[in-house]
Amino acid sequence: MRRWLLLLPLLAAPAWAKCADRPYVLETEEGLLGGENLSYEEGVLLVEGRACLERPGLALEAPWIRYLEEEGGFLAPRLSGEVEGWRLQAEGMEGKALLRVRLAKGSLRAEAERLLLERPPKGEGVFLEAPAYRVRAERATFTGEEARLQGFLATPCPCGEDLRLAMEEALFRVDTGELVGDAALGLFGLEVPLEEARLNVHRRPSLTSPFVLSATETGGLTLGLKDLPLPQPGEEVGRWSRRLTVMGTGLNSPQAALLLGLKEGGLGAEVQLGYAAGVRAFGEGVYLAYTPDPPDATTPRLEARYAPSLRLEGLALTPFLRYAETEARTGLTLGAEGSYRLEAREGPFRLALTPSALLALYPGLGHDPYLVLGGSAEVGYGEGPFRARLLYAGRYAALSPTPAFAYEERAEFQSLQVEAGFAGASLLYRLENPLGDRVDRVEAAYAAEGLGRLVLAWVRGSYAEWRLAYAPPLPQRTCCQALWLAPELGLGPEGPSRYGLTLRYYDGCFAYEVRAARVLQGQHDEATGYTLSFGLTLR
């Protein structure tokens, strides 16, 4: 007996979305089959001319579709359509499976070696490409709102899988891009079980290396782990709230110390051994610290502070109540610091004003109130390739020139900056601190996609120097290995005044950076000496 049941003209066909408008429509076990021409021979039904196969959640079109009566399967080339809300293209259909399938929904792109036309459809050999991750799965079951993935692996690396998240089974919420499941985090050959983990394929993970290695001529060597993540079940990958710090600072110097710290979200505690030994705890605007032997006269032996941060649209306000014991004085500080940002735009013009103020009172200390007034004003213009900006910022101590404690001190300054640019070229003039240690800077820069960025600057402070810096273009993410070098050089009246080099190596997943610099002659009180730092970030 034939497996297809009805062969009807258009007016008698059910009201399906697309197939109902074909001259010939028939019902099969896999859905409605229709087309403009129909022929039948030896158990094979051939539908041609806008041939379609449709059922709830599935709509396919092809140049022709053959329906094999005995097997209940299909043959068709070059299919397109929709499955469970995903746009679909397939190279062919054999039996009850689509072959070499490409799927798209929003910014998501997926491929499957096979897509079985079950209810719901099931994919085999699935590869999903999203803005922040590449995902592959052995099998996937698609519905309109979610997909269940088996044998799942996700990586944010553009090439390779040195950093990866593996799950036996994961639930993928299509609309939000969220993946949930019991996972193991892989880093090179190391596997770390995470229990239940989450990630969002639209959001790039905030992953930086906790390893710290840096050195300065005066501050010694810093070595250790800073903010090492300690994942907890249910947290999103890269947004772990619990972090550990074990770090040595000032090594090879008289200021050597060991810092141990643990924090979770906004709460945390630190213990420092050696130089400036003490303990600190903080969280939700509260800060407590005890340093039995302060390293200088401004560091409190005992400090307790409550300073909540309040925000409302453009207003940022931080009231504070503080008790401190220093070598010079002991007592309370009552004050507040705040700013308000006003912005206006009219066509290509932009205006931004940010007044700010800090007021500190010292009940019982006999010290004059400390008031600092400041802010910034910015005028900008941008239309097409042309842009211009004028920025002024400053700060002025209106009452006592110095506060009772170093915590609330805000140094006076003034700065003026004028810049203009056209396409990749720009010219800048900046005047810093004209009432004190004045520094003038004139800078010309040019940036192009294939060239990188070249900067030539003339700086005059305690002496005049020329500075030259070049940063090549960043390698494309499709480039799995690359070297990147950015040199900088300063020349003063007596020869080189400073030099530096930033070296990065890009592999398929990470960018490894080493930066070395040396200041031979500083501007005003700028520290001289060398600095060395190492960094590791996700590409």
What does this protein look like?
By secondary structure, this protein is mostly beta strands. It contains no helices and 40 strands. The strands form 2 sheets. The chain has a 22-stranded antiparallel barrel. It has a 16-stranded antiparallel sheet that branches. Strand 2 and strand 3 form a beta hairpin. It is elongated. This is Lipoprotein. It comes from Thermus thermophilus (strain ATCC BAA-163 / DSM 7039 / HB27).
Structural class: mainly beta
Unreliable stretches: 1-17
Supply the CATH architecture of the domain at 19-152.
Sandwich
Number of helices: 0
The end-to-end distance, rounded to whole angstroms, is 61 Å
Tell me the overall shape.
Answer: elongated
CATH fold-level name of the domain at 19-152: lipopolysaccharide transport protein A fold
Count every beta strand, where a strand is a DSSP E run of 2 or more residues. Answer: 40
Query: Main beta sheet, described?
Result: 22 strands, antiparallel, barrel
Strand content: over 45%
CATH class of the domain at 19-152: Mainly Beta
Work out the radius of gyration: 33 Å
> Mean pLDDT score, rounded?
90
Helix proportion:
under 10%
Signal peptide: 1-17
Organism: Thermus thermophilus (strain ATCC BAA-163 / DSM 7039 / HB27)
Protein name: Lipoprotein
Keywords: Signal
